[in-house]
Amino acid sequence: RWQKIFMFPLWGKMAVFWNKIFLTIIVLLIVLFLDAVREVRKYSSVHVNEKAANVNSSAFDHIQMKLFRSQRNLYLSGFTLFLWLVLRRTITLLTQLAKEMASHAALEAQVNDATEAAKIYMAENERLHEALSGKGSGKKKESTEATEEKLKEEIEHLKAELQKTS
């Protein structure tokens, strides 16, 4: 069922651009992560907090608010980057698994067909050995003699028809 979904023609067209889109998103997430790291360092420095506390208490609250926002952005961008990489790896593994399962099913069908053919050939080979060695029962000998007689009669009949037509 999943293979039918993954083999949809639209996915084939999108697959061409998927790696470019993936790399673009990764670069964007890395840029956001690095910006968040820069902002956290900027608002975490001790001397900035002391200067702001001495000047105005509302400025100190404003800096703390910006520090909180930058930390929040850091966590969000970092976790998103991590989950995006995990998602990409999971998709890659699922795709490989689907391909391997399909090839396994094809190989299994091929092995089953080869086994059936080998069984048929072995049975036919054994019948031929029995017919050649003459180890068959009297019933088989009678049936082969009857068959030979029928074939001889048919040959005579066909020769007669051939003479009539010529």
Automatic annotation (TrEMBL):
Keywords of this entry: Endoplasmic reticulum, ER-Golgi transport, Membrane, Protein transport, Transmembrane, Transmembrane helix, Transport
Subcellular location(s) per record: Endoplasmic reticulum membrane; Membrane
Record's compositionally biased regions (Basic and acidic residues): 139-152
Origin: domain of life: Eukaryota
Span of domain BAP29/BAP31 transmembrane: 1-106
Membrane topology: Multi-pass membrane protein
Region (Disordered): 129-152
Main location: endoplasmic reticulum
Protein name: Endoplasmic reticulum transmembrane protein
Record InterPro entries: BAP29/BAP31, BAP29/BAP31_N
UniProt family annotation: Belongs to the BCAP29/BCAP31 family.
GO biological process: endoplasmic reticulum to Golgi vesicle-mediated transport; intracellular protein transport; protein localization to endoplasmic reticulum exit site
A GO CC term attached to the entry: endoplasmic reticulum membrane
The species this protein was found in: Pitta sordida (Hooded pitta)
Purpose of the protein: May play a role in anterograde transport of membrane proteins from the endoplasmic reticulum to the Golgi.
Pfam family, one: Bap31
Membrane-spanning residues: 15-34, 74-91
